[in-house]
Amino acid sequence: MKKNNEDLLELKKLSKDEYFKEKFRKLCLNEELNDTEKEFILTCSLMFFKYYNLDKRLKGYFKIGYFIILKYTLNFNNYKPLYEICLQIGFYPIIDFITKLEKKIYKVDSKNLILDAIAFISYKRDFESPEKYIESLEQNISRNSIIKSQFNKVAYIAPTSYGKSSLIKEFIKIKDFLRIAVIVPSKSLLVQTYKDIKALNLDYKLILHDEMYNNEEKFIGILTQERATRLLNKNLLINYEVMFIDEAHKLFDRDSRSYILTRLIQLNHKRNYSQKIVYLSPLIDNVDNLKVKSTNNGEIFTKKIQHDFKSFELYLYKSKKSYFYDRFTDSYFDLINKTNYFEYIIENSGYKNFVFHSRPKIVERLAKKISKKTNNDLSNNKEIKKIIDTLNKEVHKSFYVVNYIRKGVIYIHAKIPNIIKEYLEEKFKNINDIKYIVANSVILEGINLPIDTIFITTNGTGNKNERLKVKDLINLIGRANRLNEVFSKDKPTLKGLLTKIHFLDNKKYQGKNSIETALKSLREHTFKDVIKNPLIENYDINNLEFSGTKEKVKERKEKQMIEDDKLIKYSEFILEEPINFNFEIKKYLIENSINVFYKDLDYAIDKIIGQILKFNFNDDLKIVDIVKDIFVLENEDNIKDYELERLKNIKARNYYNHFLEVTQKLHLNERINETLKYFIGKSKTEDPLLYIGSSYGETSRTSKIYDNDHYNRNVYINLNKPENILVNIAIVKLKLEEDFVSFKLNSLIVFLYEFNLITEEYYFKYVYGTTDLKVIKFVRFGLSVNTINKLKKDKQLDNLKLDINGNLFVEDKDRVNFEFYLKKQPELFQFEIKKYLQY
């Protein structure tokens, strides 16, 4: 860290050298340089590389040297310096690109062509899937080292689009493992990863859900940490021989999903001391921080990509003025003045633009403003008209995106249903005229998108401790100009190697945190891991920041220490074999993170067992009423999860019983209309307030949980609003309810089933909306209940089959008829089927 600070300080001194500063400013701002100035700036670049070669810790010198060469190449269309430096440092994809286009941009010396030929033969990777690419020297060395490594723990730390998914596929292809788990952080990534692995055509059962496992000897589980853990808990005699942990930096977080991931590693280790783990991430400084307690940690064999082909330019908009920010010398160069906020976005837009904000409500507001400022009118564009028609019919004509997409603007965030989000992402990816996607961090969990310019409009959610960290920014920036896009045959330019990142300062949108703090954090060349998870070996509470007065900091720290101790004991506890019913209940609640719903878990367990012992099941009981009677006692004050606490209210229970019995089976448009009808009816009652959560909440309501915790938040919304606004609230509410049912309510319903408190038929009816085992099989695969019900109604379900390896397919004899049927169906229906079905 000392050396990192040293090069930052030394580079900052360059701002005092007026001659260098002026020539560098001209280069950054694309101004003309004479021959003497060109020679000077290129010489400076070589000197920076020389300093870096003397001490590889001084990464800042490498970054500025490479930036100068890249910027010079693009400004003056002179590829010779870039070609020669890339040959020395092993950036073979750039060499390959230049060589293929030599007649247009650069005539390569014949002696270099021989070297190139050798390099291309050595570093070209050609997988059996449609994937072909050139590796850099670092990539090649890293991949070969990891594949050949005999270590049980391996880490590959590389920027986004540097072959992590390819490494997984090659590892699986050439290694002889029987039971493989690829752990992905979100359901959105399941299908993308499944398609990648399916394309390998390997003789493995592919599993996307824990209930798809049927004692197969060979399988690849593409699973979230929750599903991977449930699979082990239901099958006590198996383990994973190898686990790939994607986005491994999430282990450092302090939340229930991080604890489940950590405990998955602990549980699998207990069953298999020689388990192999491959950690994959772009955002880890010290791999020793990945070591999990209670797993006999040894050395983690690590390969880290030190140098990125891509660089970036930083811009700041503030008080109607704009600046180029030189992150190397910490200097600002003046640009144009007197431009308003949204005009600046339009004027500086690229081919495909990503506008980032952390709050969903403001994501929608920004999309609206940008759509009003653009001059685009795509109303007559056939592709856009088709999307508008689809959204009108299958979502709702008042859905905000319907109007915005006419101007080439869409938005996505975590509070809209997944099928809409994924559909809009796909359209942004494939339709050139959709120029803007406004989104929050949910964009990191979806498909790879062709973004070339980024606008960052916030530095977090307002709280000092929730501001954007340098890791967050690096992850966001990594979404732009992915290498497969940069080196596309359709784009004979290397401009994508230099991403433009714009930071916009405006208190109306950014909140209390300074946007310049986020901007300046990108001066850092290394970043420190912040470990908040007490189940990680290197966790140290003294390394964390606590906000508030000295007394408040002490109080919060002491409270967290108690919580840490509890979490560590829980993790040790669940590795033991149950010795009685109380033990078994507690183990299950902790394993499935149900314990987080309660203030005092042991007290809750006593009450739950008491309720179980006097419970008598019959089919006439409603499922949410059973959940309430077992887990949410009427007169108890032990629930700390507000969403769950609402089940004490008869109206809330009726709502969720109806949701499970009726709403979840409906088509999306029907669900929205039913929710809208409920809103309109509720708005006319004496209680027009609706729980909507903090993202959209406008007002508060008295609650024991908030009073006890001094935690008064605006989580309600008044439904006395115009119908078009209520429609969009309904869309958000549906996603909130889907998440509540999927992640919280269903975990309690599964408990009832696992402990034989309800019958299998009753369980299937509520969780899957049917008792038909064929339908359930496809729901577990990932298709929605209403899509399968439609296939069944249209007598098409028999055309879909799962082969012995868990792949969805249509037999050749049925394919023509099924494709003909599919073409006549609504587009969202087609989209969902085609997500999983590959011909």
Do you know the CATH topology of the largest domain? Rossmann fold
Helix count, DSSP H or I runs of 4 or more residues:
36
Going by helix content, strand content and strand pairing, the class is: alpha/beta
What is the CATH C-level name of the largest domain?
A: Alpha Beta
Rg is 28 Å
Flag low-confidence runs.
126-130, 705-711
Helix content: 40-55%
Strand content: 5-15%
CATH level-four homologous superfamily name of the largest domain: P-loop containing nucleotide triphosphate hydrolases
Write down the domain tally.
5
Task: Describe the sheet with the most strands.
Answer: 8 strands, mixed
Taking all residues together, what is the mean pLDDT?
Answer: 88
**Could you give the distance between the termini?**
52 Å
From the spread of the alpha carbons, the general shape counts as: globular
From the 3D coordinates, which CATH architecture of the largest domain would you assign? 3-Layer(aba) Sandwich
Q: Total number of β-strand segments?
A: 21
Strands of the widest sheet, in order across it, are 12-11-10-17-16-13-15-14
